[in-house]
Design a protein that fits this description.
mainly alpha, 11 helices, 76% helix
Length: 287
């Protein structure tokens, strides 16, 4: 156990801190690309598919994380295939899998004898009870997400900025879109132990919304979003232990509070400067 100050002086808090920092870094990074593509709700859609995977794993008595990852990745690729071929719009594709996922999860969980705190821990997060093995899994998935985004981030930015221009430039647009869908699925499965399936999309979007208020380029926005994500995780965990609050919800509330404070402060500064605020706009066409 590392000699850290309160509230991270206990081993379980240190494991939670590592998991929280990993997901506080990875989730906003991926979320920035989703927001740029106006697919902020994609995390919710894939999250409900992950819930079906968790319920299926409990029913089959196998590791729920593995089944959640399998179902989430398959669903993410299916959503992207439907959207990419133009058969349905992006929001309709998300809605189809959103409702199918939650319905399948309810049915499978109801058929399982383990519909108890185990299911609730995946729905709402249980970061304070993660084991060392869980932490290593979250950390490994987080590193995989960061490495993938570092590898394809520049090309992926060109795609999300202008897909048609990216095709003309010869970029493998379909492959990049599929890679983003897979990365989103992996991030959701990794983060479901931190904030829970029902709140994971918030960790992907809220830090980005805060960063958009301050960022003047996409690169700056991504960096600020990751900083807000990490800060929200650390502050949320500390507050959860200090006042006995649910850690997943507390982390998300801190992220939401950060957006409120930053947006209101920025609005007042812009008014004093005689400039109209443009909160919520997508910043920057440059990296």
């Amino acid at each position: 156990m590392l000699p850290l100050p309160y509230p991270f002086d206990r081993e379980y808090m240190q494991l939670a801190l590592v998991s929280g920092i990993a997901m506080g870094t990875a989730a906003p990074l991926v979320g920035a690309f989703l927001v740029q593509r106006r697919l902020s709700l994609m995390g919710d859609g894939i999250g409900h598919l992950a819930f079906a995977g968790v319920a299926g794993g409990l029913l089959l008595e196998v590791w729920p994380v593995a089944t959640a990852l399998l179902v989430a990745v398959a669903g993410a690729l299916a959503i992207e295939r439907l959207r990419g071929r133009g058969r349905v719009s992006g929001d309709l594709a998300l809605a189809l899998f959103f409702y199918a996922g939650i319905a399948a999860g309810v049915v499978l969980a109801g058929a399982s004898d383990r519909f108890d705190a185990t299911v609730l821990s995946y729905l709402f997060g249980s970061i304070l009870t993660v084991s060392a093995a869980d932490t290593w899994t979250v950390l490994a998935l987080g590193v995989a997400v960061l490495a993938t985004m570092a590898l394809i981030g520049r090309a992926l930015f060109a795609v999300v900025l202008d897909e048609e221009s990216a095709r003309v430039a010869g970029l493998p647009v379909d492959a990049l879109n599929g890679a983003l869908a897979v990365v989103v699925a992996v991030t959701i499965v990794a983060a479901m132990r931190v904030v829970g399936i029902l709140l994971v999309a918030a960790l992907m979007v809220l830090p980005v919304a805060t960063a958009q208020v301050l960022g003047r380029s996409f690169r700056t926005t991504v960096g600020l979003a990751m900083a807000v994500g990490v800060g929200s995780s650390v502050v949320g965990l500390g507050a959860a232990r200090q006042w006995g609050l649910p850690p997943g919800g507390t982390i998300v509330l801190v992220a939401a509070g950060a957006f409120g404070v930053v947006s209101l402060t920025a609005e007042r500064l812009l008014r004093r400067a005689g400039r109209a605020p443009a909160l919520g706009s997508v910043p920057g066409t440059s990296r």
